[in-house]
Design brief:
Helix content: 40-55%
Number of helices: 3
Strand content: 15-25%
Largest sheet: 3 strands, antiparallel
């Protein structure tokens, strides 16, 4: 299993991060806000834990979505 993480940066708006968490990880607004604040305060936050192929797909989807919206938001995966 692999953790999917969002990494903090100084440019991506907090509201955009919340939208990403709701859209790609099906988190509620409250859960999304909590993860976004963890990313902001601690430098990274866990979006979910998935099998390798699902995690890789989510990383690619989030990365592509961020690029399309011209944000440098980084999404990575690491073994759990």
């Amino acid at each position: 299993m692999f953790k999917v993480l969002l990494l903090n940066d100084d440019f991506t708006p907090m509201d955009f991060v919340v939208v990403v968490l709701e859209k790609f990880f099906k988190l509620s607004r409250e859960q999304s806000t909590m993860v976004m604040l963890t990313v902001h305060r601690e430098g990274k936050g866990v979006c979910g834990i998935y099998p390798r192929d699902v995690a890789a797909t989510k990383v690619e989807q989030v990365s592509a979505f961020a690029r399309r919206h011209q944000h440098p938001l980084a999404c990575v995966m690491e073994e759990n």
